[in-house]
């Protein structure tokens, strides 16, 4: 439970970074978390509150800076909660993430005999998808458009975001001016841009339908902010209206992104890896590490729209893609049929015991679960006993937990590597290849 403080100002020396990329200082038995501070720095920080022996603080000044400190590129960085490591050089960001992944796995007793070089790409303008909040203030009579502040529900008004692609329609100050002219300006709660390979789509989330005049105004705005290299689309999702629907153009081109030489269909509301270049490298590495053979059966668990399933099906004997969302399962089936791939799409809730037991036994399994991990499916994997398991994770703590379960059951890590899917943030994607130590593999 947090205790109130008098807002005292302390001088601290930062020892290291915690898993969220915050500076960590110690004094006696107390620990201080200082967002924005780096190891080796001397800083002054204001106390905000304490939970047990851990104090949360706000960085006030850096009196002795680390040589790895760099100037943030974004003018909104001090307020916006979208990024948290812009003050750390990119090379140091990669080291921090590699060390964090190794530390989390070691805590669970998971031995990694070989770390591969990190997969990385351009650290700016990489993010193909985002969700910006929109809030109408009756007191001020205008709208806020931006990302939430760190540890807050307040929105920070932003202009351009340097982790999003550069495009005339991605200027949020102009979106704010547009929304303030709409009759239904208080109806819009979020804007979600999706940078597909063939178009830039905007999904507006609304609590009430927008009137025709407002829709025409938004379409006109997009038309004046178009660029020759990328068509624009306008979608809307009403709070009680089901799936998103396209308002403009009348006959929109199906959205897609390219992976392993294939165009994979996506809808604006699908989960899609946000870093196109790193995703392509990640899929290529997954195929290389798992090395599916022409006679093998492969399971792809948490398959989504087929980011791994489709490339796997080009070399494996057969692929079973398991996904809980029926809409994605139908999309997988449609795409596999169109590409004539040996892929079976199955709708199943992997949190349910025995959800996989009716499927043909796999030679290898790839799983890419959400942030909560795949602990509930571990017993089924251990019972099924595939020879190889490739685990791709966006949360190294849950990856370490699940990998620990597999290692206790006789699996061993062959190699591991991080993929920097989220530059300028503390988030890290990790890939592990495990093999069954009770079986021989060629």
Report what the structure shows:
There is one protein chain. The protein has 442 residues and is α+β, with helices and mostly antiparallel strands. It has three domains: 2-69, OB fold (Dihydrolipoamide Acetyltransferase, E2P), CATH 2.40.50.140; 93-122 and 275-436, Vaccinia Virus protein VP39 (Rossmann fold); 132-258, OB fold (Dihydrolipoamide Acetyltransferase, E2P) (Beta Barrel), CATH 2.40.50. It has eight helices and 22 strands. The protein has a seven-stranded mixed β-sheet. Strands 18-17-16-19-20-22-21 form a seven-stranded mixed β-sheet, sandwiched between helices. A five-stranded mixed β-barrel has the order 2-3-4-6-5. Strand 12 (232-238) and strand 13 (245-248) form a beta hairpin. The longest helix is centred in the N-terminal third of the chain and has 18 residues, at 90-107. It is globular, with a radius of gyration of 24 Å. It starts with a strand and ends in a 6-residue tail after the last strand. The relative contact order is 0.11.
Provide a short characterization of the protein structure.
By secondary structure, the protein is α+β, with helices and mostly antiparallel strands. The chain contains eight helices and 22 strands. The protein has three domains: 2-69, Beta Barrel (OB fold (Dihydrolipoamide Acetyltransferase, E2P)); 93-122 and 275-436, Rossmann fold; 132-258, OB fold (Dihydrolipoamide Acetyltransferase, E2P).
